[in-house]
Amino acid sequence: SDTLESLIVADVAGLADNTGTLSLLTTDQGGIIDDCIVHRTTDGYLNLVCNAGCADKDLAHIMARLEAAKSSGMDVDVEIKPNHSLIAVQGPKTEGVLQGGVRDDLSKLFFNHTALVDVWGIPCRVTRCGYTGEDGVEISVPTDRTVELVEKLMAASDDVKLAGLGARDSLRLEAGLCLYGNDIDETTTPVEGTLMWTVAKRRRAARDFPGADEVMRRFKAKEGRRRVGLVVEKAPARPHYPILNLDGEVVGEVTSGSPSPCTGQNIAMGYVDIGYIKNGTPLQVQVRKKVFPATKVAMPFVPTQYYVERK
Question: What is the C-alpha to C-alpha distance for residues 156 and 153, in angstroms, rounded to an integer?
């Protein structure tokens, strides 16, 4: 866990067995290299899932830190799984559909818990998560059996439909979740991205994650810009559209925007100067040559439905 903690902001050592969390790979300046999911397993390893679009740079970064750890005498290694694919099955009927293909009791698999499970006889890792704000699972499956698994899922219920990244994008926006490359990147720290909740309390106190000093300085300074949610009247906002105050001054920029299928509103997220982050603050968004009213609102835009353990 020490080696992985030298890369990300999570309290990996503090994770319970077969549970995980969303975390961030950060630079020495505190910028976000990528967002990722890390799980502590009872199978003798930590499981790290990064964005496929960032795979090359993430791997190069991880391997550089790995070599440094090895040279200091640590017994650590990385196993890449290029022959595995990831299927996300999302929505309130997920458990009922998937239960027919597994022996394990899925009602005991809570949000961000993970297990090795045979799914219709196919060896998989099933994790109760997904980037939609809904209940669901992500299934890591051998690539040469991916089509087989998808066919089994679709045959199990007429409620199972194929959906692409466009559908996922509208759902993750409704849930107020960042898309790497749009809403966060290496110029963004967890402070600006309102992602300080991913930085574990122990890691904040120890200041032992990459870029910790700069991140904590910005956190205490309460200056600069912040990621916010917007509801825009009449016109959908798109990435890079300017955000204006009521005097017409540019105070930020949209990073994601779309009509919301669930609320019927035009929703967006973007970055604004810290003086405009209070809920209810009236703003404007410039859509091509026209300006439309907008309001700063809390996120998520649609309540999340994660399957959490009730204590």
Answer: 5
CB 104 within 8 Å of CB 46 = no
With CA atoms as reference, report the closest residue to 85 among 37, 123, 141. 141
Beta bridge partners of 25: 8, 34
3-state SS, 244-277, equals ECCCCCEEEEEEEEEECCCCCCEEEEEEEEHHHC
Distance separating alpha carbons of residues 250 and 144, to the nearest angstrom: 50
The structure tokens listed for 133 are: 């704000």
User: Encoding tokens for residue 37?
Assistant: 């999911």
Residues contacting residue 280 through CB under 8 Å, at least 6 positions apart: 295, 296, 297
Which tokens go with 226? 């912040």
Q: Is 60 left (phi over 0), alpha (psi -120 to 50) or beta?
A: alpha
Reduced DSSP (H G I as helix, E B as strand, rest coil) percent helix, strand, coil of the chain, to 5: 25, 30, 45
Report the predicted TM-score, pTM, of the whole model to 2 decimal places.
Answer: 0.95
| Ramachandran sector of residue 280 (left: φ over 0; alpha: ψ -120 to 50; beta: rest) | left
Tens-digit pLDDT profile for the chain (311 aa)?
889 999 999 999 999 999 999 999 999 999 999 999 999 999 989 999 999 999 999 999 999 988 888 888 878 888 999 899 999 999 999 999 999 999 999 999 999 999 999 999 999 999 999 999 999 999 999 999 999 999 999 999 999 999 988 899 999 999 999 999 999 999 999 999 999 999 999 999 999 999 999 999 999 998 999 999 999 999 999 999 999 999 999 999 999 999 999 999 999 999 999 999 999 999 999 999 999 999 999 999 999 999 998 87
Asked whether the beta carbons of 3 and 76 are under 8 A apart, the reply is yes
CA atoms within 13 A on the CB side of 158: 0
Q: Are the C-beta atoms of 93 and 134 separated by less than 8 Å?
A: no
> What whole-number distance in Å separates Cα of residue 229 and Cα of residue 85?
32
